[in-house]
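B., you asked whether I could sanity-check this one before it goes into the benchmark set. Here's the sequence:
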Amino acid sequence: MFMSPGDGDENYPACDKVKLHIYRLYGLRNAIIHNADTSPYIQFLTANLEHYLRGTINAMFYTASMLPVVRSPEAAFQRYIHMYDILVKQLEPTHTIAAAEHKQVDSLVGQGKITPSDTMLKHWLKLHK
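And here's what the prediction gave me:
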């Protein structure tokens, strides 16, 4: 659990890096498909793509096994995103809150009216054993 507001902020840029990498893969895909181009980094990029795909498929599988009402891969993925948002919000209460409201939330955390928690994180980690 993070000890003070903002302790987990360095985790969110990782999401942006993954998005950027996926855009690079898509650009490479377009270069290969439309221009018969290639890249010296293709093995590295495809290894990372495989890693992302395995992670996504595992996330859907774990979510579907946890929630028997999930009926499709799309539903599993949406539930997983929802679960992630709740998890991050518990760890860092200012997550998804406008920057102008951070001081107010930080004050409530300092007063003990909002308590960061790792309950959902522990539950999520149990799924991945």
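One thing to flag: The chain is about 65% helix and 0% strand. Otherwise nothing jumped out at me.
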